[in-house]
Design a protein that fits this description.
Layout: E1 4-8, H1 16-33, E2 37-40, E3 51-55, E4 59-60, H2 62-68, E5 79-81, H3 108-113, E6 121-124, H4 127-138, E7 143-147, E8 157-159, H5 162-170, H6 174-180, E9 182-186, E10 189-201, E11 204-216, E12 222-233, H7 236-240, H8 246-266, E13 269-270, E14 272-281, E15 287-295, H9 302-314, E16 320-329, E17 339-346, E18 350-360
Parallel strand pairs: 1-2, 1-3, 4-5
Antiparallel strand pairs: 5-13, 6-9, 7-8, 7-9, 10-11, 10-14, 11-12, 12-16, 14-15, 16-18, 17-18
Helix pairs in contact: 1-9, 4-5
C-alpha cells in the first residue's frame, strides 16, 4: 500500500485552474489506491517513503525517477522519457535531410515505423534548418508552424509564403528550439481532432477514443474546450471490439502504431498515454489522417479518464462509459449531472470554469 499520493508541480509553475483540477484528481486516485492525498511533494518531508506521484510534466531521465522513488508505472500517473524533446510533438515528424543539429537520442527508426500514422512535416532543432524545411513544404501547400511547448493550440501559425515563414522564425528562441525542437507540418482544412488513449491506475486499465471540442477564450481566440470520450475497461484490443465509424477506427489504429513505435524507439514507460489524431483535407483536396502529438502526463482529458476509472472500480461488471470534460470561458454554470472541477478568474485567461460528466455507454 502506498504511503500517500503527491502532486509534483512543474518547476515552471502550474496555473490556478490546473492546480485545482490536479487536486481533485489526486484525491480520486488516492481513493482508488486506498490511501491519502497529501498535496504537493516536499523534497525534505517526502524524501523517503512509498508514494504515488502525479507529475505535471512528463518526467525526463531515469535519474529523476530514482530521485523520486519511482520504480515503475504503478508508482506514478504519466510517463518518463530519456530526453526533453521526446516528451513533445517534436517526435511526430522526421528531421530534414542533412540537418545542422541532431539531438542526442533522436530516432530515425521511429519516423519509419510511424510513417503511415503521421502527417507530412518536419521537426527541426535549428532555425536555418527550419527555413529550408519550411520552404520545401510550402511548395506543396500551406504550412502550420508549431512551437512544441505550446498548449491548446496556442502559438501556432499558418504560413502561406516564404516571407511570413522568415518573420515567424525570427521570433523563435534559438536555444529553446535547440533543446525542444520546432515542428513544421502540412496544414489541413475542415479538421476533426480525435483523442485516443489509455490509462492504468490501481490495477485497472482503461482505453478510449473520443473527439475534442473547440471553444473561444475570453479574447475570442479558438482554443481547446474539452473532450467527449468513450472509455472501455481493458486494452486497445477491447476498445477495437466496439462498433465505431471507420474514421475513428483509423484514428485508434494510427495511435496504437505511433505508441508502439514510441515504446520501441524511446524506451517509453507510461501509465497515462493520450494521442491527438487529426483528420482533414490537404492542399490538394485529399483526405488526410495522422497523429499530431502525444501526451504522457496529466492532461485536459484526465478528469474524464480518472472519473471513468472510479466508475469501473465501483462496479466490476461495468464495461464502458461515456465521459466528457468541459472548459468554458466567461460566466458558465455546469449542468446538474456534471461535477464542477474549477471556477475562477485566471490572471492570464480571465474567467474560466471546468467540469466533468460521466454517463452510461449504451452499445448499439
Amino acid at each position: 500500500m502506498k504511503d500517500g499520493v503527491l502532486l509534483l508541480p512543474s518547476e515552471s509553475g502550474v496555473s490556478q485552474h490546473e492546480r485545482a483540477v490536479h487536486q481533485v484528481l489526486g484525491r480520486k486516485i488516492a481513493a482508488l489506491l486506498g490511501t491519502l492525498f497529501l498535496g504537493d511533494r516536499d523534497a525534505t518531508e517526502h524524501a523517503t517513503g512509498n508514494y504515488y506521484l502525479i507529475p505535471s510534466d512528463t518526467l525526463i531521465g531515469s535519474g529523476r525517477c530514482r530521485e523520486l522513488g519511482i520504480q515503475g508505472i504503478d508508482d506514478f500517473f504519466g510517463g518518463v522519457v530519456a530526453q526533453p524533446f521526446m516528451a513533445t510533438k517534436a517526435i511526430s515528424h522526421p528531421l530534414p535531410e542533412q540537418p545542422r543539429h541532431v539531438p542526442q537520442g533522436w530516432s530515425h527508426e521511429f519516423s519509419r515505423q510511424a510513417a503511415n500514422s503521421i502527417l507530412g512535416g518536419r521537426t527541426v532543432f535549428d532555425l536555418a534548418d527550419a527555413q529550408r524545411a519550411g520552404e520545401q513544404l510550402l511548395e506543396h501547400g500551406t504550412v502550420r508552424l508549431k512551437p512544441v511547448l505550446g498548449k491548446a493550440g496556442r502559438g501556432q501559425e499558418v504560413i502561406h509564403d516564404r516571407q511570413r515563414l522568415a518573420e515567424l522564425l525570427a521570433e523563435q528562441d534559438a536555444a529553446e528550439v535547440a533543446t525542444w525542437g520546432l515542428v513544421l507540418e502540412e496544414n489541413l482544412s475542415d479538421v476533426v481532432t480525435f483523442s485516443v488513449g489509455q490509462v492504468l491506475v490501481a490495477g485497472i486499465t482503461a482505453s478510449y477514443y473520443g473527439s475534442q471540442r473547440l471553444t473561444r477564450d475570453n479574447t475570442g481566440v479558438e482554443v481547446y474546450g474539452g473532450s467527449d470520450l468513450t472509455i472501455v475497461r481493458g486494452d486497445y484490443a477491447e476498445l477495437m471490439r466496439l462498433p465505431m465509424p471507420e474514421a475513428i477506427r483509423l484514428a485508434v489504429s494510427q495511435a496504437h502504431v505511433y505508441e508502439h513505435a514510441a515504446f520501441a524507439a524511446f524506451g517509453l514507460s507510461a501509465s497515462r498515454r493520450n494521442y491527438d489524431v487529426a483528420q482533414g483535407i490537404d492542399s490538394l483536396g485529399k483526405p488526410r489522417s495522422g497523429v499530431l502529438e502525444q501526451s504522457w502526463r496529466i492532461g485536459g482529458a484526465s478528469a474524464a479518464e480518472i472519473f471513468a476509472l472510479e466508475a469501473f472500480a465501483a462496479d466490476p461488471e461495468l464495461r464502458s462509459v461515456r465521459a466528457s470534460t468541459f472548459e468554458c470561458y466567461g460566466e458558465s454554470e455546469p449542468p446538474d449531472d456534471a461535477q464542477q472541477l474549477y471556477s475562477g478568474e485566471e490572471p492570464e485567461v480571465g474567467r474560466l470554469s471546468k467540469y466533468v460528466k460521466v454517463e452510461p455507454h449504451v452499445i448499439s
